[in-house]
## 1
Amino acid sequence: MATVMTNLKISQDKVQLKMAEKCMNPYDLCSKAEISYASYRRIMTKGGCKIATLGKIANALDVNVTDILE
């Protein structure tokens, strides 16, 4: 089964701002989104991820997916 990457880019700045608003650190986000810290770092560096992972991050931050896209 191939990994599906989207052309949707996550904005590192927007994610970090939302984490600050929620008083979360990256480990809190990873725990709540049920993703590994390594995945978080890769996503923040490259900006892309699976659609489901994008949804997990948005849900963990209590925002719409479009709120964290570039």
## 2
Amino acid sequence: MNETTLNKLKNKAMGFAASALTRVELANEEGRLKAKFQSLGQKLYAAVQGDLLNAMKDDPSVVELVGGIEETKKKIADLEQKLAGTKVEEK
């Protein structure tokens, strides 16, 4: 094998490794998003039970959860876009 072939193989392996790491990061972010939605759902359920829905929008923990959900959704979209770009490069 010549050096060019080895470099191509090395570059391809590096691309696959980067893609795998991005997939792991994406799965972690999706897990975080699920946990945030679950926490928000628990707060919503408690508010419904206590007839406190109007007070919920002023609850700092709810505002923080909603902000965290939006941030996590953006990270997920960025990672998905990164993966889509990686798939094109791997071909």
## 3
Amino acid sequence: MAILVAYDGREHTKKALDYAIEESVVKKTKLYVFSAIISKDQLDRDEEMTQVEKYMDEALALGKDRDCDIQTVLGSGAPAKGILEAAERFGCDTIVVGRATNKSAFDRAVLGSVSDAVVRNAKCVVVIVQ
């Protein structure tokens, strides 16, 4: 039994992280914090990696401060695909994702939504934190 939370340092994913940490502590289960590097250009990837390391370290510290059995996981490419693959690899029975409320219907239609893709394709329970 394990929980995976998708986290990218933005406000809506911070809410998801808080929820996932609380659930992990209450259920006494492992928590995996997943983030993906999406840049294709090497210079952009290096800059993105610096940012990802910072917010993943913060997530790890927050979890440990709350006595959570927490581990960070880094993927690359499309976030939804990475989330689903990581959840399966680690045997997670729950995926927690945040949902941005400031996206327009056009943005969701054109760019897609990570939370929507995870809900449609997950083989386990998905919790969307808004």
## 4
Amino acid sequence: MKQQKAITLIALVITIIILLILVGISISTLMGERGILRKADITIEKNKETTAEEEIKLILNEWRIEKVETTKTFLEFLDSKVEKNQIDKYERIDEESIGIYRNNYIIIVDNDGKIIKNIQKVGPVPTIENIKITLEDGTEAEEYSQKIGTKFIISFDAMIKDGIIKSIYPQIPYTTNGEEKIVEFEIIGTVNDIDYTTNVKISLESKYIKQYESLEKAISDQKESGYKQVQILAKNEVVTHDMNIIIYNGDLVLDGIKEVNGASLNNNVYTFGNATTDVGTKTTDATNMVVLKINGNFVINEAVTLTSCISDNGYGGSKGFVIYCTNEITNNGKISMSDRGAKAKGQNVYLYKNLDETYEYVPAIGANRWRKSKWQ
């Protein structure tokens, strides 16, 4: 009898264990990571994503047809779709991209409605901070200080709220190739097993010396007096000019009486530039071009002469003298460059770019020949 009870008790325990195992399996099947309920949730979410994607793409297809005949801009077109509740909203992400939202999903397009990033769920966005842009030796790159060809190293910290950063492409620290003006990074963060992607563009434009199509364009862009360096990219050639630029905001009258900044006055002669820093010496060539820029009218009175600086020791003047005036020039006096040729290596000076893409320029070869005959 006792043996039967023992067997019955063992059978009960085994039955309970089996039931517990079955319950565990059932719960896991229903609610586990790969369970039925989890799969159902994924299916529902996937259907929402597909529906949102189809609705946004339908709108974009409509724009491709409508833009041929409409006078609307793309943003005006999107405004009309928001009003009709065909999309939830849109927002500009940067100068080149726009995010279009529908049912908690987003597709990113360019300014003409072309998809540049496929649909993803709206959620926490990976962000970056502590951006560092240095030279290869680790020193900080100052604004507009580097020539094209200089390589930079980019690094930053990336994070996402309540999650982890899964990947950054290209990897950081990233070394540029010396020509890149913008580097785009794709950053993927994961929160609760869902990936969220953002693209971050880091501009290097301000680190390079700005390049212009002509000397005229370079001078027109200058806002402050001082020593500047500009690069001219013309006819597949990069020419660097060091300038001592003297700027006047407002009308300038040279009357032979009034002193003006950036020039010396002696016997009705205004001499612009610095005879110490802008000209050559026995052992060094002239380095700077003197630029006089007037944002207004410019008048040279009768019996007044305008010229540029020259070496006291017989090594010529600056590497050039340019007068740039935004309004009218009235010359009742004289502009003289007698004996102002510079002891310096000749350069092609691309003064102005014509509408037919040709250039008005001073060739380097003439300057080189003159230098050779006079100084060497």
